[in-house]
User: What shape does this take?
Amino acid sequence: MIEFENFSFRYEESKEFTLKNINVTVETGEFILLTGRSGCGKTTLIRSLNGLIPHFYPGEMKGDIRMDGASLLDMKSSQLAGRVGTVFQDPRSQFFMTDTTRELAFGCENMGYRREETVDRIAKAVADMELSDYLNRSIFALSSGEKQQVAIGSVYALQPKVYIFDEPSANLDYEATKRLAQIMAKLKQKGYTIFVVEHRFYYLRDLIDRAFLIQNGQIERTFTRGEFCSLPEQTRVLYGLRTSWPGQDAKAYQEKKSHRETGHSFIVENLSFDYKNGPEVLQNVSFEAHSGDVIGILGHNGAGKTTLLSVLTGLLKEKKGEIRYDGKRLSPRKRRSLSYLVMQDTDYQLFGSSVEEELSLGISGDPSEKVTETLEALELSAYREQHPAALSGGQKQRVTIGAAIVKDSPVIYFDEPTSGLDYDSMVRVSRLIERLSDAGIIIFVVSHDFEFIVRTCTEVLQLDDKGAIHNRHLTSSVLESLSEKYFN
Assistant: This one.
């Protein structure tokens, strides 16, 4: 049993308390969903549970957190490691080894267990979590879902009583998300207490016992599974929550206008690509796009979505086939000058010392007027002189989009733009892309976020296992078939 007793926490660098008077009891074996708008205090709550607060994030604490009568706040990190295990959003952030078997052993070795006990714990983790196919493999060769399974196995080997999952589906395709739900179900059946911080929680419908809605550092409401999964849409949107039923709710979105035969054309014909000494990733890919089209690129992890983006943007050269813009064939160099890529992790593409400088980089002449207009349009004027690193994730994303607008890029690519975003932020990104579409920009979006895809895109490109592509206008019948494929 875990008890929060009037618990509050303030980060050392902050004047305000992030968590305020948390009073709640979680029974052993309960499955708890922690949800709410970004910045509400979810991450701080789980940091308080796993010992990152106060050992890594110092600050002022009030009250107590107790597990089976013992205060977690009085425990050392080494003591907590055997009680509370955490699987982070990006498993790479918790890997220390380059191969899977040594990664499974790392935690046990770090805890000082004897070799025989470490071997026994690994064997149990491999058997219970069905990891035999992942042994003795390079971490770098695994898909996102496979990395996460190894991360869960490495935590499982420590045999904690409590599991914490932080945005675990953010980087997973639909099949990997289903697999994640199956692993969580197995942990729940074994009687472990589970906390999941999640915005896209549809896959947890059958698992959660209670959902805690956190707002402004407090548990605003507690729901049973039935109450939470049947929230009226108006109430759900008021709380800033994603849908529990993305397949069903997709029917509410009307078919969007096709822009075929209008404006600028972007045509791909018989495109193929393979990596050196590797199999062919893309095979005879053909499709077309026109000004204002918003095209979602779908496919499981490893299907070739990132490779397709890299070829379209000119970062990779195609093996055969061609790409044309307004009838003119584009070399990789010309594709690079024509397009702009908004990466999933925007920190990789921010170089300026201020937001204004970031939007002006590489622009000939005096771009100040265009920069000012763009900052106003993206509601970034107040941050003009701030360093991009000091901005929130959503603000950084708008800065990168602003750079594309100032550059007058006719084609913009987004790679997982809503990964880890709450409902409000997802809607904001969707509306921003719609504005770009209205301005005649051709937009490609790689995403596993079905709720975002159906809200935003006009067409979808589906990559299959053979690297081929299927191009379909996002009609009601296509929405129905996609819902059937991903959610039934």
